[in-house]
Amino acid sequence: MESIFHEKQEGSLCAQHCLNNLLQGEYFSPVELSSIAHQLDEEERIRMAEGGVTSEDYRTFLQQPSGNMDDSGFFSIQVISNALKVWGLELILFNSPEYQRLGIDPINERSFICNYKEHWFTVRKLGKQWFNLNSLLTGPELISDTYLALFLAQLQQEGYSIFVVKGDLPDCEADQLLQMIRVKQMHRPRLIGEELAQLKDQRAQKTDLEQSLEVSHSYDGTGMLDEDEENLQRALALSRQEIDMEDEEADLRRAIRLSMQGGSRNNISEDIPQTSGTNSPTSLTSEELRKRREAYFEKQQQTEQISHLHEKPTTSADVLEIDPGNDMTEEDMLQAAMNMSLETVSNNLKTEGKK
C-alpha cells in the first residue's frame, strides 16, 4: 500500500488529485490546469467571435464566468480530457451507446474517472487488483474483482458520471510491484471528514476523562491515600481479631492448668487476669463455679434427708458424671465440680470463637 501514490483532498483541487492518482505521480499542478482552462476559454471566445464581436451572444459570453474553472479550484471535464491527451489517453463515457456496443467487461479495463457534483476521483487497476483512489479517503481502498461491477453500478445509481480511460498509462512503481504480489486490506480507509470527526471526539472524551480525574483528586494522590487507609483499617481489624482469639486461648489454657492443680475459687480469681468486655472468661468461670457449688450442696442436703445409710453424701451421675457406688471425699467432689465447670467454660469460649 505504501508504494501506491495517493493525493488527499486539498481545497477543491479534486481534478488535480484525480489526474495525479490516475498517473501515479505529481504530474499536474493547479497552475498547469489553469493554463489549460484559459486556453480552452480562449478557443471558445474565438469561436463566439466568429458570429461578430458586436453580437448579443458574444457580449453575453464575455460577461459569464469561465465554464472550465473557478476560483475554488474546480476544473471541467474538458480540462481533464485535454490534460490526458498529452499522455495519449482518451475518455469515453462508460454507459454511452458507443461503449455499450463494444461489450467490454469492466474488469478488463485499466482505469475509470468518476464525477459527481464537481467532485472527481479515480478507480485504477494496479498490478492485478483494483483500487479506489478517491482523494476524500484517508488511503487507497482495495476493490475485489467481483465487487468492481457492483461498485460502478452503485455509482451510476447515485448519479455519478463514469468515464473509461482508454490508452496506455505511464509505468509506475506500484503497478510493477503489484504484478508480483497481492495485497490484503484489513481495515477499509475512512473518509477524511470522518477521521477528523473521530479525532475531535477522542479529544473531547480525553478532556472529559481528565476533568473527571481532577474531580476525584487523582492528580494529588488523595484517591490512592484513601485506598491505602482502607487497607490499613482492614489489616488492623484482622490483627485485633487474631489478638482476641489468642487471649481467649491463653485464658483457657490458664484455667485448665489451675483446675489440674486443684486450685480453689479464690486462686482462680487471683491467677486469671481480669479483661474488659462482656464475655470475660474470668467472670464466667467464677459464676459457673458458684452455681455448681450451690447445686452440689443442695443435692447433698437432699441426699442426707432421703438416705441415712451413708455418713457421707453422694451425687448422681447425671450431675457430676461420677459413679455413685464409690465413696468420695468432699475434696474429690469439689475437684469434680471444678472440672465440670471449667469444661463448660471451655465450651462457651469455643462457641464464642466460632461466632
Low-confidence spans: pLDDT under 50, at least 5 residues? 262-283, 308-325
Integer average pLDDT: 75
Total strands: 6
The amount of helix comes to 55-70%
Total helical elements = 13
What's the arrangement of secondary structure elements?
Elements lengths: L13 H10 L6 H20 L6 H8 L13 H9 L4 E4 L3 H6 L8 E6 L2 E8 L2 E4 L8 E3 L1 H13 L3 E6 L6 H8 L11 H24 L6 H40 L3 H7 L9 H26 L10 H4 L9 H25 L1
Antiparallel strand pairs: 1-6, 2-3, 2-6, 3-4, 4-5
Please provide a written account of the structure.
With 355 residues, the protein is an alpha+beta fold. The protein has a domain at 14-194: Cathepsin B, Chain A (Alpha-Beta Complex). The chain has 13 helices and six strands. Strands 1-6-2-3-4-5 form a six-stranded antiparallel β-sheet, sandwiched between helices. The longest helix is centred in the last third of the chain and has 40 residues, at 222-261. The chain is rod-shaped and about 155 Å long. Residues 262-283 and 308-325 have low confidence and may be disordered.
Short description:
The chain is α+β, with helices and mostly antiparallel strands and 355 residues long. The chain has helices at residues 14-23, 30-49, 56-63, 77-85, 97-102, 145-157, 173-180, 192-215, 222-261, 265-271, 281-306, 317-320, 330-354; strands at 90-93, 111-116, 119-126, 129-132, 141-143, 161-166.
